[in-house]
Amino acid sequence: MLMLAVPAAAQEGAHPTPVPPGAHLPFQRSERLSAGDFVGEIHAYSAAGPDMAQALATQYARLGRPDLAWAAGRLHGKSGCDVVAQEGISTDPLDLLSRLAQDRRVVMINENHFAPTSRAFWLAVLPRLRQMGFTHVALEALSPRGDDWTDGEVRESIAGGKGFAPYLGEPTFAAVIRRAMALGFTLVPYDEASLADQNGDSGQRIASRERVEAARLADTLTHMPADGKLLVLAGWGHIDKGLSGPAQIPWMAEVLKQRTGIDPLTVDTTSCQRTDAHGAAATYVGPDGTPRVIDRAVGHVDMQVYMPLPGGDDLIAAGVSRHWLGRPVAIPAALLPKGGDGVVEARKPGQPADTAPYDRLFLRPGEVLPLYLPPGRYVLTLRGEGGGIQASTSLTVAAPAHGKTPGTELSQATNRVAPSR
Length: 421
Known about the structure:
alpha/beta; 6-stranded parallel sheet; about 20% strand
């Protein structure tokens, strides 16, 4: 069973720190982010009000707080999910995906940009598809210049501080890239917004971007070995087949299908959620084993995965899916923020500051939550408003007794991904 949620220690009664009166725009300033001022970024988005709710949610997700991200984003599952869950037969999503992918050259899996549970599912999928002969992984967030990953690390501040990768600093996303490289996948960037036509209405601009993405993927397939297989990791509706959206445009998957004749297996992780934050991810099939999807998704995606919902007021939800990063590690008391909000980061000794940490966690005064780290030695730092380092310490995370990293190994007995314990 694919488990994506585990309890995380938390202290009850914590309240948000009031937004300082000096919070200001613009948002996502490269200078602020490159300086590590994630607290200031959170405060700026919070002060902007509901119009910037999704942007605030993305920031919380980047900082290891899927619970706060989901509350800020205020999204709900699409209609019909409950009906499918009630009428369908629950099955392991990895087993179903493996069965459906047997005769496919391209698999596409989407994500909600502020729900890292989708990225935890990616982590679970990578070793399974590698065993099945998949050779390339295309990620929407990678820079076409290759300056954010080609040196063997995941760089989130690029071009000498002049740019900032939007998702790479989120610990689970960075773990996906590291895991893909460790498994021997070839990484493929395919999204370059600057090549898309910026003229016309929003539908025309979206359609142009979809064509650019599909053209890059088609070119990748042309230059891959004949027996190579491609996994595409994308956001939201890019994996839709058919015509979608108010403008009824062909999205990336459909354009690729029309251009190459290849019908990609498309897996939606964004539309439906499980209300139990501690439950296993699930998908549903009919009596004949055929995947069940909600009515509006028929003809657009091939299967839907119901992800654990990191909602509610319980701070335990902050740990949903994050155990896939490694073992829970208590943050030393000296690094817990006391006079204001803070961000705790874990990097390996000597790791450049512009590369993505192995975990990163936004904390408000009074909150006690763990980091999740694979075995190794780390330098922990606490940053406050402005990005300055307020405290630091070193610690070592011991390897588990069985010698495998929790949350990422395939159980040889069950051929399923084993949860962290």
